[in-house]
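A reminder from the course coordinator: this example appears on the midterm review sheet, so study it carefully.

Given structure:
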């Protein structure tokens, strides 16, 4: 397997894991950034494909599915694209097959023009995430927020830190595991009350030492796998305790906290109340600890094999019309340029 992606931490991790790596950078084009979809990258990709001659292309980055559609017109190499997140107004799809990691993203892709979308939520390597040995309860409960600390997640992290602050004043241990551009800012602002652990490659050990995990996205699945009661959070506030009544709604948007209403008033106190209630309910925490690993098993990456094979079989037997690809690319480029021009006009 060879991965084509921008240089950076992900590229280094790919190389360290023993896979091939080819440089395919992000590039601004036509007043907008279409991630990897640019004419220079098309030439780079065609060179990579002609040199390596892979049996199939599997893309995940927004914009890369456009590159693969155009490249297959020249090379005949089939492609499959995975939709990892919510769609912006500029997303356009056609044909397929596509894979979607949550029901909401599957519906979005169909509305944006895709006619073959397959749900594929099984995507995590959970081999290291399993319940730890049963130990006596610590006299001081440990609350952990685990997340990347950058981009849109900086607002989520700030809200969680505000929610943990009053609990730390009650003698509860509150810690933040994760790294990113926002770590120095968060540490400077909240470092007196909260413990900032930075990047922890031994995250399963951190989770097993926690009485409650606050998180968004795949970290919640990892916490459930470790038998840790979890609370979901979105950038507008608390998404509630993850339990049999709420799990399906939280999973609907890939566990990322997007089920939290956009109209909800930004309020850290609601998250504080949810955490405090769970801290004081030992019986409920024990029940959630026993329930969580069974839910996490649904997302074991090893379950994805049949879905991937089915999508690959369809892709290998189907050629996307060149005219369809040209029309899709023209529509998306026009939309992106129009929105970029509007933003520049408003800024001026």
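Designed residues:
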């Amino acid at each position: 397997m060879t991965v084509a992606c921008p240089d950076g931490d992900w590229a280094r991790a790919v190389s360290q894991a023993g896979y091939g790596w080819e440089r395919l950078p992000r590039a601004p084009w036509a007043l907008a950034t279409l991630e990897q979809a640019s004419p220079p990258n098309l030439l780079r990709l065609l060179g990579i494909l002609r040199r390596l001659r892979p049996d199939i292309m599997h893309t995940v980055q927004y914009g890369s599915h456009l590159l693969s559609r155009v490249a297959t017109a020249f090379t005949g190499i089939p492609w499959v694209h995975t939709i990892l997140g919510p769609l912006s107004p500029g997303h356009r799809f056609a044909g397929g097959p596509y894979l979607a990691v949550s029901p909401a993203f599957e519906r979005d892709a169909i509305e944006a023009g895709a006619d073959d979308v397959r749900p594929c939520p099984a995507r995590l390597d959970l081999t290291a995430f399993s319940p730890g040995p049963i130990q006596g309860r610590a006299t001081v409960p440990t609350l952990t927020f685990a997340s990347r600390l950058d981009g849109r997640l900086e607002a989520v992290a700030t809200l969680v830190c505000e929610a943990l602050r009053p609990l730390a004043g009650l003698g509860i241990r509150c810690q933040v595991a994760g790294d990113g551009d926002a770590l120095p800012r968060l540490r400077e602002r909240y470092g007196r009350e909260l413990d900032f652990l930075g990047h922890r490659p031994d995250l399963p050990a951190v989770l097993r030492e926690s009485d409650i995990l606050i998180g968004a996205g795949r970290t919640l699945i990892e916490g459930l796998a470790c038998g840790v009661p979890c609370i979901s959070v979105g950038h507008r506030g608390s998404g509630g305790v993850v339990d049999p009544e709420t799990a399906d709604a939280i999973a609907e948007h890939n566990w990322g906290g997007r089920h939290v209403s956009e109209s909800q008033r930004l309020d850290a106190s609601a998250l504080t109340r949810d955490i405090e209630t769970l801290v004081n309910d030992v019986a409920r925490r024990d029940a959630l600890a026993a329930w969580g690993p069974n839910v996490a098993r649904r997302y074991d990456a090893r379950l994805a094999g049949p879905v991937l094979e089915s999508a690959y079989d369809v892709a290998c037997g189907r050629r996307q019309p060149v005219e369809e690809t040209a029309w899709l690319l023209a529509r998306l480029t026009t939309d992106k340029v129009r929105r970029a021009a509007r933003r520049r006009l408003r800024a001026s």
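The mean pLDDT is 86. The first strand starts at residue 2 and ends at 5.
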